[in-house]
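Cross-check.
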Amino acid sequence: MELEEKRWEENSKRWEENNKRWEENLKRWEENARRWEENNRRWEENNKRWEENARRWEENNKRWEEAYKRFEIIEKELKALREDFNKAYLEFSRKLDALGARWGVIAEGAFREGMKGVVEKILGVARVEKWEFRDEAGEVYGYPSIVEVDVVVRNGIHTLVEVKSSISRGDVLEFWKIGRLYERVTGIKPRLVMISPYVDEKALESATNLGVEIYTQLS
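Predicted model, tokenized:
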């Protein structure tokens, strides 16, 4: 009898322990279920966010496609405008060059006319004459042409005078060739004088080497 009671007590104790374990497991299952519900809720929220982001990406792609099409249209228009501008600019440049060449001749002539008094002051003469010669051999320009130059004869000295608004190295060389032609034709070696308010540095160097006098102080 005592043995049976002892067994019942042990079984009762085991049942209590098992019930306690079941209760603990039940709590764990409930906690896990709650966590799964929370995770499911978060996944649903994330899915909604992903769907919203996907929708926004689609809208942005549509906007970029529309913007790209507009850029293509603008690029074509700019290309056409650039071509029209280049054509207009070339035409304007041609007209400007023609006008500049014509004005250069007029301005140079007006400058030479206005410098007569300065020439007379520098050379101490009252008269400047012009020498003209047909250069058939092309000594000056490389081909047959009429060569003209202002000349002053005073006290037996022949002075060739060139008045220009500006002097370059090429101008000096051309004038030196005219002086050499004058010496060959007349048998007299002339004094070479160039007068200008502006003279290029290389022109000054060439003038020194070729024996050409240059005057830049006009006052």
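DSSP finds four helices and five strands in the chain. Confidence is low (pLDDT under 50) at residues 95-106. Passed to J.P. for a second look.
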